[in-house]
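Hello K.,

You asked for the raw outputs rather than the summary table, so here they are, unedited. I folded two proteins back to back in the same session to keep the settings identical. This is the first:
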Amino acid sequence: MREELLGRYRILLARLLFEREAAGGDLAEDEESRFVAHLDEIWWQLDPAEQALIDRELANRNRSTFAKSFTS
């Protein structure tokens, strides 16, 4: 796997989520679109195994976030 691409994807996704949160939950459409375009560009450079890894990481993150919402 190409760790550089995976790392770029993870960092960009984290930045998107941070910027969304900092903006109160929503970004302006043009800002969100820029992030999504970059994420999409990287996504299609990943091979299927790398895409599956990202999908698993996101699923685990979402399960963790969902579980924490009940314990807060």
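The second followed immediately with the same parameters:
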Amino acid sequence: MKANAIRIHETGGPEVMRWEEVEVPPAGPGEVTIKNHACGLNFIDTYQRSGLYPLTMPSGLGLEGAGVIEAIGPGVTEFKLGDRVAYCSAPNGAMRLTATIRPSG
């Protein structure tokens, strides 16, 4: 599955952010795929983009989002398709239309 995401390939100001198509992996064991309806932009994102807090490039931005579950991997029992969910402190890359993450229990 493909989705669009805000990504950076180098550090700098807002001009280094790119709207790109990215591959979204299928939900694996213990994971869910979420169609984001909102994502947060916080000071840490600007620090990471500027290089103050280093990231491995290329990188997505954003650590939190909210949306609807679109796919469920094997072993996930606490959620169902269509559930509205929110997450934080996920790996960088919440600023995308769809994300696959591992919920913590």
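The CA atoms of residues 5 and 96 lie 4 Å apart.

Happy to rerun anything if the numbers look odd on your end.

Regards,
P.
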